[in-house]
Amino acid sequence: MWFVTSLLTVVGAAYFYEKSEKYSAEVAMLCVAIAVPGTVLTLIAAPWPIQLLLLLAVLFSYRFTKNNSLLS
Length: 72
What we know:
Number of helices: 3
Radius of gyration: 15 Å
Order of helices and strands: HHH
Largest sheet: none
């Protein structure tokens, strides 16, 4: 239950950050302050198969962005 709650909190904070970034720096900073500890809690509370999938997604996205930046 902690995993789902913290994941939804992080997704909500990211959504509000995207919407409020242009209009209010204070609200955007508050969203970041909520999202960073929420992300850590999500990673700790996630079951191991989800942690493995997240790790693979991070590794592949890093390689993809690294390769695309060299081509540009």
